[in-house]
Amino acid sequence: MKNESILVVDDEKNIRMTLSQSLEPLKIAVQTAVNGEEALQKLRESTYRLVFLDLKMPGMDGMDVLHRIKEEWPKIRVIIITAHGTIESAVEAMKLGAVDFIQKPFSPGEIRELTTRVLEREVLDEEGAVDYHSLIELTKRHITDRRFADARETTRKAIAADPTQPEAYNLLGALFEIKRNWLEAQKFYRAALDVDPTFKPADKNLERTASWYKFGKIDLGPDERDIDSKHKSGNEDKDEE
Fewer C-beta within 10 Å: the chain N or C terminus? Predict the structure, then answer.
């Protein structure tokens, strides 16, 4: 693996230590920051390809840090650290390009696996992505780059590559939620349940989007679990007409 610099932003010392030690076998340089202000200062001073970001910190809110990262360093990939599996304003976070989440408590193996997948996603050959898993990873790269129309297209290709997997339908539903198209979102959540009636993320999402206020949690699947999504009237997809 190419040696990439990573910044870990969390006010909990044990979380910073756990992440730093877990990444050692990958031979990746790791720096840490205890709050948002320190994180932004380090981002100005050095180059990073990946940031682990806790959204619940004293001082500058993690969502504000995410906003600044995507404004000033749009190519930096961000993995959100979630406590109790939830974050606020998930639709806003996804619009900013946050598609990877890791839930406390996590194991060293989970950290290394997710880090490897995110970094390898960067060199994925777009033309050569034809199998289901490659198309899902390409979709996530498009989301990170805020190319949401492209993300919807590659998710549809993933469904065509393997229509028996519920995750792609669920992810496409979430992408339509970003667009605030509730009916299309519900259609794909139902499709996920048609292929796997036990797929809980789609069940949760369908129940929430069918509610009057459409508040609650947006669940993207095994790696992006239980994310609060209190919808706000933000900007539409920047690649939409």
Answer: C
